[in-house]
Structures
1.
Amino acid sequence: MAQIRRTDQLVPTQFKAGQSGNPGGRPKKTRLSDATREWLEDIDPKTGKTNAQIVAAAQGNMAKKVNTAAYNAIADCTEGKARQAVEVSGPEGDDIPVDLKLIDEEIAELLLEEGFTKNLRKPSRKKQKAPRSPTLAAQS
């Protein structure tokens, strides 16, 4: 038995070409973060301070007692986590040798043009000598 399509429920401009049907994407679930933010804003009736102020003071007191983890947590929150630079080198700090036989010639040329490494050698290509002009050839 053939299925009958109901076209009376379709909206002709429901989906436009080139546009996502869900531009915002799947909504992010932040229940824990939202609940924590609300709790931090709550005011403690005994002290009149927010929970955020109480937690920050407790963290600060722990840092004063030379608790390195507490100090690092404060620094990370206030200054942001420090970026770590990583340098890659060969043994004894030498450059890492690159075998151009393993690299496509076009990629190697691009790397050389952009100056990514000094150890790259240009792929061997025989250079053609520029033809001498007839006037220069006659003068020599």
2.
Amino acid sequence: MNSASYTLSPATSNDGEFLYELGRITMHDYVVAIWGEWYEKWQRDRFDTNFQPSEWTLVMIGGERAGGFAVEHRPDSLYVSRLYLLPEYQRQGIGADIIRRLQSEASRRHVPVTLNVLRSNRLALQFYKRHGFHLTHEDDKCFHLSSAAQ
């Protein structure tokens, strides 16, 4: 499937509320499946404490925010800590295109792309496996995946 026309834009501190809500919209059901409920105060505090605009990139469609992803440039990997698209923009090839871009960047650095997927999110696990990721290990909450350095 061809990816929808989109652009990428660096996030700023003004995007924090959008990115928090984006995470809530896309991850709520998966979090509830593991922890039993969405602890709003805990989720908000965790987001506010860890939000680093410099790690986030916005996905823009038609001048509107459609999603975002956060990447940590670690010495031994390109770690994707978040990749969220609003539901109406999912399954249009955007996520796949972003992953290919990140894999290309990681290849230039000779490091793998790494990420975690909640065990309850089987669709994401299948998505990443289709795009060259393999399971490195798992724990009671997450699958840990890597896309080999090239």
3.
Amino acid sequence: MLSRDLYLNPILNYFMERVGATLAGVKPAELINVSVNGENKRQWEEGKKVLESCYRFKVIQVRERNQKVQVFFLHRGALDRTLQQRPVLLFLKRLHYPTEYSLENYVHTLTQRIKSSYFPHEIGVFLGYPLKDVMGYLGYPGLKLTDIKGWRYYGHGKLSVRTYEKFKEARNNAKLILQKLEKNQAPEEIIKFWDTYSHGEPSGALFRKT
């Protein structure tokens, strides 16, 4: 059992709120900077143990600099489903991702590229952005910038808006659930809740009204 001091772990609470849509399986992944200055470092190390206690989620510390840790947090089921869409796979393979797909290999390729001097803008598909928006940002012809809200929208904006609103709603709903759970549940029990009820369904089944 982890220390009950984790109830008062502001770094863990902040992180869980930021990745709420991913905890719910609606957004496949997040890339977040976490402060590890002073006491924050201990809080993050304890919080990371909680996050890593469930297989459904994966925490990858990409790099640490200037007293901040860059963290790639993913929902295995949601990200695997996203990357295995045929147009996404073809797109990533054109960018020299492994010919044989596996979630582990593709995530490893991405995180290694983040560590390099060249930032991999294809990360957008890992984060759940529509493929057309990622391709438009990379300069593919025929895709004009049409709006900016959360990220840059290219081409017809309907899918982009719908995706943005889905992420926003999931994050807000997850925040409400977290606020309720945090009142009487230890952090490891909160993660177990998400592990039980989050299945990576793109429709966000966890939040459907019955």
